[in-house]
Amino acid sequence: MAGELVLLDFWPSPFGMRSRIALAEKGIPYEYREEDLRNKSDLLLQMNPVHKKIPVLIHNGKPVCESVIQVQYIDEVWHDKAPLIPSDPYQRAVARFWVDFIDKKIYELGSKIWKTKGEEQANAKKEFIECLKLLEGELGDKTYFGGESLGYVDVALVPFYSWFYAYEKCGDFSIEAECPKMIAWVKRCMQKESVAKSLPDQEKVYEFILQLKKIFGIE
Amino acid sequence: MADEDVVLLDFWPSPFGMRVRIALAEKEIKYEYKEEDLRNKSDLLLKMNPIHKKIPVLIHNGKPVCESLVQVQYIDEIWPHKSPLLPTDPYQRAIARFWGDFVDKKIYGLESRKVWSTKGEEQEAAKKEFIECLKLLEGELGNKAYFGGENLGYVDVVLVPFYSWFYAYEKCGNFSIETECPKLIAWAKRCMEKDSVSKSLPDQDKIYDFALHVKKVFGIE
Fold first, then answer.
1. Is there a contact between B97 and A72 if contact means CB atoms under 8 Å apart?
2. In which domain, by residue range, is B43 found?
3. pLDDT bracket for residue A218 (50, 70, 90)
4. Where is the GST C-terminal domain (chain B) (predicted)?
5. What is the domain count for chain B?
């Protein structure tokens, strides 16, 4: 069943991290290939001609694109180990709703925090914190969004933790001060190898952001 | 499992609501349709979708399911025996989900709305990209009767509601979608032969009137 698995990825991508975590949770070996996004490989362009983006999961030569689709695919193909998506249809719908929420809000707001200044940045910070608080509400008293073990929402959200330090430095605020429950959840996730080994160091991500800001001429 | 309380909070021109109407009709599920006035949202809507406050909201036995793609998958999983929408094979499911995501990003993204809400160069650029996206979908359809093969599938349900908006796009954008994408229009007409689709989509003229009204309200030329 394992067959040949390749992940075309880019080390700071939270989307790529999702697939890394899912594969690690299931204990599935794969070949990781780092893409240079300024010089995309022929393989990437061939495997994702529509969007030309990473991550791309290639299973026995067939591409699966879009991180949430990859995580669901991984969960369905390797369903016996570490199930990520709930078996109950209603709980599945709830999990999918929150993953959709994360996709609509967290990345875009986080990007505004490091790309902008002044009022635009202030609004982005405010809304970002509001979104994290909504997620804290959904987490409630559970250990993970998935309950006793990592689930779909955990996998979709925790990669953004590697960007929190960059957001905090650029936005001059503390996420932990505003959302302690969220940070506590993150730290629990980071105790798992599948997560710790899939997320790059926060300082490295911050340096990467500073480099991007320089390239794009952002103050 | 079959007979339960199903309510759909919706707004008649919404392509997202239409997806859910089609899915429920394909599965022959009886439900209560409640029209929302989006300028005066009901307490029920605000209670059932406090995060986004948007329609459609599917309420099944009192529990809300929000976001149309999530709703279509939920409907397919709760009532699996009639008209399955998603394939059983995990790889085929991944492909179907990919194209469903593509439709959401590109056919109803901010860029494609510019086809009817802008003018001049901005509109021309939006029209060009819109047609390119429809052509990609034609490529995915290939020679199949439907994206789902011999029967309506997930991608058909996700995409066909936009057919009700094509006339509005064409009038506002002054172009013919059929000329550019005849295969796609042929597919849409095949879908419209099904009751589940034709009874779920409003009349194209009504949508055009609605689009004109929205443009007036928002002061768009």
1. yes
2. 6-78
3. confident
4. 89-218
5. 2
